[in-house]
Amino acid sequence: MRPVLIEAMTLRVGHHSTSDDSSAYRSVDEVRSRDKKDNPTLRLRKFMSQRGCW
Prior knowledge:
Region (Disordered): 14-37
Low-confidence stretches: none
Structural class: mainly alpha
Distance between the termini: 31 Å
Family: Belongs to the BCKDHA family.
Radius of gyration: 16 Å
Number of strands: 0
Strand content: under 5%
EC number: 1.2.4.4
GO molecular function: branched-chain 2-oxo acid dehydrogenase activity
Shape: flat
Order of helices and strands: HH
Cofactor: thiamine diphosphate
Number of helices: 2
């Protein structure tokens, strides 16, 4: 096998821990925007639709 590079974009959808309140450093608008823009289910559906698999 040959080496492979995988680039992955991730976003934490919850707090770091139960004592962390991410609303102190992440606005509600940012979270909602990310939900619409980077929703993995919608992205997969779009990918599959473009290839005639959905």
